[in-house]
Design a protein that fits this description.
By secondary structure, the protein is α/β, with parallel strands linked by helices. The protein has 11 helices and 26 strands. The longest helix has 14 residues. The chain starts with a strand and ends with a helix.
Length: about 450
């Protein structure tokens, strides 16, 4: 067995592992950093749905570059870590025995399928959506020669894939047990706008129902249909289980690292486990919500990158006192040609958590005047504490600028900005780029929230 020595060993080369490596090298340039990843070619996870339609068209256009790490002198090994001797600080990867000082689990997540349907994954035509180029290419090849597709799940991956496939001419049905699509990110009035766009794209939608059986009518090990709890049967040549992801923590559990709620690795705000030489970042780590402090299932590359920066800078000393205070669950997506973004808690989540809130909404235009080419409606909703006015959530629907505007709201949430401060926010505006300064939607939503507080 070949022996290798490094100062920092990172298991996993996705967004979390990659950012951790670069941040660690930036903060500790004299340390030898080794990243072990299983796949030689890394996909951009968020772009996977667009491989299946005309936006990207193939996985070769969805490859994540590792150039920065290579340019910085960060070493990479393709392989799988099978075991770790925590006491001796030795990891065993195929034919390698790797000695380390610090180790970071960045092992990501794997598709989640409810146990009642897992046995059906052996049927031909039944797929999950893994972050693996070889498996995504297999799914793409299968989809290209089939027409009737059922997508189980109405989260971001499911909806993005559904619209992409429908626009490329496929017959697509989305089935969800949720009250509305994108339930954990948007309130009903925003979700209804997304549903309308999805239906106009040709996607069929079955809500408040769930798949209880994936059917092989002919007994030839091929899927033919799905049966729902309501008794309805939907024909299908392909079933895509877009039912979320779960932390990939089998290795961590095997070597005795403590797990938290939902199976993620327990970490503190600096992404350290109880053993401060062991860190965990990304989807494999246990998360808590920034607002409610409850355990969170949110898995986002942006959250993973933030965790990677915190871990990478805290390996040998705590440089920043803030720490990582929890996920604000900040999302952006495109449904058709319309952008949907959200951050923090929704109104529904606040009610469930017993948070005393007010909301403020405003609909305006993203350009000024309205005759400017490209002008379209922009709806902003803010959720704020009734006492104090701190912004704890926001949702936006509009043009492409929505994806950056939500980042403003995200920072407001993290910084504890109130609607009173947002009301007097100074903004740069330009007719062809932004809404008018007289009725900038984030500011006006804050004004509406203040009005709700006053009333």
């Amino acid at each position: 067995m070949q022996k290798v020595t490094c100062d920092v060993l990172i298991i996993g080369g996705g967004p979390a592992g990659g950012v951790t490596a670069v941040t660690a090298k930036t903060n500790y340039p004299n340390k030898d950093i080794l990243v072990i990843r299983e796949n030689e070619i890394q996909l951009v996870p968020c772009a996977i749905p667009y491989v299946f339609g005309e936006t990207l068209g193939c996985s070769d256009k969805d490859v994540a570059s590792c150039a920065m790490a290579a340019d910085m002198g960060i070493s990479t090994l393709i392989g799988k870590v099978n075991d770790i001797n925590i006491a001796k600080k030795i990891a065993y990867c195929d034919a390698y025995e790797i000695s380390f000082d610090k180790i970071i689990f960045a092992t990501g997540s794997t598709p989640f399928v409810h146990e009642s349907l897992r046995h059906s994954l052996s049927l031909k035509g039944v797929f999950t959506v893994p972050k693996n180029k070889v498996l995504i290419d297999e799914l793409k090849s299968y989809i290209d020669v089939k027409n009737e597709i059922v997508i189980v799940g109405s989260g971001f991956i499911g909806i993005e894939m559904a619209v992409e496939l429908a626009e490329s001419g496929k017959s697509v049905t989305v089935i969800s047990a949720s009250k509305h699509i994108l339930k954990n990110a948007f309130d009903r009035e925003f979700a209804n706008l997304a549903i309308d766009i999805m239906l106009k794209a040709g996607v069929k939608y079955v809500g408040k129902d769930r798949v209880v059986e994936i059917i092989d009518k002919n007994g030839d090990n091929h899927v033919n249909a799905v049966r729902l709890l309501s008794g309805q049967t939907v024909d299908a040549e392909i079933v895509i289980m877009a039912t979320g992801y779960q932390p990939n923590t089998e290795l961590a559990k095997k070597v005795g690292v403590s797990l938290g709620h939902y199976g993620g690795i327990w970490v503190d705000e600096y992404m350290r486990t109880a053993n401060h030489d062991i860190f965990a970042v990304g989807d494999c780590s246990a998360r808590r919500h920034f607002i409610t402090k409850d355990s969170s299932k949110v898995m986002l590359a942006s959250t993973s990158a933030a965790e990677g920066r915190m871990a990478g800078s805290s390996l040998y000393s705590i440089k920043y006192l803030k720490g990582f205070s929890g996920t604000i669950a900040i999302f952006s997506t495109m449904v058709g040609k319309t952008a949907f973004s959200s951050a923090g808690v929704t109104e529904e989540q606040a009610a469930t958590a017993g948070i005393d809130i007010v909301t403020g909404s405003f609909t305006g235009l993203n350009r000024h005047p309205a005759s400017i080419p490209g002008a379209q409606k922009q709806l902003v909703k803010l959720i704020a504490m009734k006492n104090g006015g701190q912004i704890i959530g926001g949702q936006i629907v509009g043009g492409n600028e929505t994806g950056e505007m939500i980042n403003i709201i995200g920072l407001m949430i993290e910084m504890g900005v109130s609607v009173y401060t947002a009301m007097s926010m100074q903004i740069a505006t330009q007719p062809m780029l932004t809404a008018a300064p007289t009725n900038y939607p984030i500011v006006m939503a804050a004004v509406m929230a203040i009005k709700a507080i006053d009333n």
